[in-house]
Specification:
32% of the residues lie in helices and 17% in strands. Helix 2 crosses helix 3. The strands form two sheets. A four-stranded antiparallel β-sheet has the order 3-4-5-6, with helices on both faces. Strands 1-2 form a two-stranded parallel sheet. It starts with a helix and ends in a 36-residue tail after the last helix. The chain is of the alpha+beta class and 146 residues long.
């Protein structure tokens, strides 16, 4: 689902407040939207499969940002299917707090004036997993054969 959303939805700025279902509809049928569209599409698809997930919202920064926390049975991990800037090699798939914090530092260093990429209020969410299962690099994506 993460890879489908990442590759089948084209990023574009969306306007206006919308429900999670309206946003998921835009993602599934219009195949374009902002980070909220990516988050909502993932949420609705994961819900349909019975996979525990929840919305995470950025705290601080110059704009809003949303992504999913997902629990496949081994703890809660960060998943953000929305694209990074062109050429950015990071994939936010099954990432720990430490990994998203490291990416946030990298992003701040390479994009001055855009702090807090994956900064969130940790107290609002269940305890997250700490075991690294994916390093965030494109060439390390798990395959269906594994």
């Amino acid at each position: 689902l993460w890879d489908w959303c990442r590759t089948k939805i084209k990023y574009s700025y969306s306007a206006g407040a919308r429900t999670v279902y309206e946003a998921a509809y835009e993602g599934l049928h219009g195949r374009k939207g902002d980070c909220y569209i990516y988050y909502a599409t993932m949420e609705v698809l994961l819900d349909r499969l019975g996979v525990e997930n929840m919305k995470v919202a950025r705290v601080g920064g110059v704009s809003n940002h949303w992504w999913n926390l997902v629990n496949l049975g081994d703890g809660w991990y960060h998943c953000d299917a929305s694209p990074r800037q062109k050429g950015d090699p990071y994939f936010c798939f099954m990432q720990t707090d430490e990994q998203v914090a490291q990416y946030t530092l990298y992003y701040e260093a390479t994009n001055p004036g855009h702090p807090n990429y994956f900064t969130f209020d940790e107290s609002l969410y269940p305890e997250r997993a700490t075991t690294i299962i994916y390093d965030g690099k494109m060439n390390q994506l798990p395959t269906t054969a594994e």
